[in-house]
Every structure is written in C-alpha cells, then in structure tokens.
C-alpha cells in the first residue's frame, strides 16, 4: 500500500488507471468517506488520481469541509478566550500560527455573537441563533455571557444566589458537567466560587469527575466566574 492511501482509495486508483472506473455515485461516496476521515485532504490531488475535477470533489465534500472548518474556528476562538497564545493554539490544532491568526480575524460571527443578541434575549432565542450560525450551544452561552459580571451571568443562567448557610438545588444544571450518577449540581460549584474566590484565583478539584467544576471555573463555559 502506498503511504497515506487507504486500501479502498488505492483500489479505486487502480481501477481508474485500467479503465474500470467507479460510477460517479461510488466516487462521491468514496470522497465523503475519505474526507470524513481526513477533512484536510487536498481535493485537487485526491481527484487527480481518479480523473475527477477538483471543483467536483469540492462540491461533493463541501458539507464535510465546512463543518470541519467551523469546528476548528470554534476551538481556536474558545482557546483564545481562555488565554492561550496563537502559537499554543496552533500546536493544539496542528496548524501554523499565521493560520490561527487568520482564523481569529475571520470569526467575527463568534466574537460578536453576544453583541448581536437583543438586550432582552432568552434561552430559546440564544439556542435559535446558535443553531442558525452552527455554534455549539455551550460556546454560544459563553459568548453571550462575556463581559457580564458574575451576578448577571448567574441570573442569565437561571441561578438564584442563595446567601444562606444551606443551599438547595432541585436538579443539575444542563450546561454544567456531563451526565453521571455521581454528578453534583453545577449551581453548587457556582456558589462556592462566587462566595469564596476572586477572579484569577487558582481552583483545584482533586476529583474532577464529569467536569462540573472545570466548566464553572475555566472551560468550556469560560466566562461564568
């Protein structure tokens, strides 16, 4: 097997070279399979070996590469908001620092997401806008809450601050932590951080579990506290 080729793709190139071409339907299915496995493939080079024009390959896999680019944009933006340098983001994503810089320049729809919401936005409107722009809901919340103080963020999340020595929460917050039998309410962590930490403090959770504390104090819902 030539290096970098899947067995199915290599077999298709042999068929193309010997005149036994795949149908357009089969070629398209192969393209989608190959680009799902590696969205960074070169469409021109991939199609050349099969006698398929670059524009055709790009049309076949446009939905895959667009989703991949959007995901990469969101991750880069997310890490940028967490304070990662462009060089660190590039290493994480396997791309050049200049590419990271270009991405951060081009993703105004993410940076301005919160600014473009009306002042009276609610959960339903935020979810609709996130779906329209293809932004994960948790990142949409992060953008919408950016710039608010902690009290306003908690209010927007539907968390009522309880200044008592006993706190009561009826269920776990949907945005905080992964479903798990031992999961604690994210509202509890919010209260602990709200009353007993200051912005920039180091928060240590020796039993990270489903990531509830991580969500409140750092990522992915980075601006809560």
Describe this structure in words.
This protein is mainly alpha-helical. It has 2 domains: 7-108, no CATH class; 147-225, no CATH class. Helices cover 56% and strands 0% of the residues. It contains 12 helices and no strands. α4 (54-81) packs across α5. The chain is elongated, with a radius of gyration of 23 Å. The N and C termini lie far apart (52 Å). The relative contact order is 0.07. The model is unreliable at 218-225 (pLDDT under 50).
Topology:
Layout: H1 7-17, H2 24-37, H3 43-48, H4 54-81, H5 86-93, H6 97-106, H7 108-111, H8 123-133, H9 137-145, H10 150-156, H11 186-196, H12 212-217
Helix pairs in contact: 2-4, 4-5, 5-6, 8-9
List the defining traits of the structure above.
225 residues; mainly alpha; 12 helices; elongated; disordered C terminus
């Amino acid at each position: 097997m030539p290096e970098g080729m899947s067995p199915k793709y290599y077999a298709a190139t042999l068929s193309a070279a010997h005149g036994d071409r795949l149908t357009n339907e089969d070629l398209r299915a192969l393209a989608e399979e190959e680009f799902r496995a590696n969205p960074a493939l070169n469409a021109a080079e991939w199609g050349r070996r099969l006698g398929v024009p670059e524009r055709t390959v790009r049309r076949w896999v446009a939905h895959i590469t667009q989703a991949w680019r959007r995901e990469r944009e969101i991750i880069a933006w997310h890490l940028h908001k967490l304070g990662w340098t462009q060089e660190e983001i590039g290493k994480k994503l396997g791309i050049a620092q200049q590419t990271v810089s270009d991405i951060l320049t081009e993703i105004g729809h993410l940076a301005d997401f919160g600014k473009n919401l009306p002042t009276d936005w609610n959960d339903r409107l935020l979810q609709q806008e996130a779906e329209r722009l293809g932004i994960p809901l948790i990142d949409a919340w992060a953008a919408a809450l950016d710039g608010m103080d902690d009290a306003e963020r908690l209010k927007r999340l539907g968390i009522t601050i309880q200044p008592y020595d006993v706190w009561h929460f009826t269920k776990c917050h949907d945005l905080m932590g992964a479903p798990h039998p031992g999961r604690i309410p994210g509202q509890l962590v919010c209260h602990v951080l709200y009353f007993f930490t200051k912005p920039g403090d180091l928060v240590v959770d020796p039993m990270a579990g489903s990531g509830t504390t991580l969500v409140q104090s750092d990522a992915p819902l980075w601006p809560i506290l």
